[in-house]
Automatic annotation (TrEMBL):
Gene: rpoZ
Quaternary structure and partners: The RNAP catalytic core consists of 2 alpha, 1 beta, 1 beta' and 1 omega subunit. When a sigma factor is associated with the core the holoenzyme is formed, which can initiate transcription.
Keyword DNA damage (UniProt): no
Protein name: DNA-directed RNA polymerase subunit omega
Gene Ontology CC terms: DNA-directed RNA polymerase complex
Function: Promotes RNA polymerase assembly. Latches the N- and C-terminal regions of the beta' subunit thereby facilitating its interaction with the beta and alpha subunits.
Signal sequence bounds: none
Length: 88
């Protein structure tokens, strides 16, 4: 079994969203895209924000998101800000 589950991870990511706002993540597909993008960054040499301890990059990425170390940004954030911030 995967821990945390997709539903637990979605709840953690969307917990700071106001009731009148659209959730950042509303499907498993969104979670998979975000975690795989972060895992590719780790594979490419980015430092993990949690203890790796021999874990695979995807497990590290999931743990980072669950612990709130990595945030998923709305799709239009980068276009509005234009500051080069990575979007997950």
């Amino acid at each position: 079994m995967i821990h945390p589950s997709y539903s637990e991870l979605m709840q953690v990511i969307n917990k700071d969203i106001d009731a009148d706002e659209a959730p950042l993540v509303n499907s498993r597909y969104s979670i998979v895209l975000a975690t795989s993008k972060r895992a590719r960054q780790i594979i490419s040499g980015a430092e993990p924000f949690v203890r790796a301890g021999g874990k695979k990059p995807l497990s590290i990425a999931v743990e980072e998101m669950y612990d709130g170390k990595v945030k998923i940004l709305p799709e239009d954030f980068e276009a509005e800000e234009g500051d080069g911030t990575e979007e997950f």
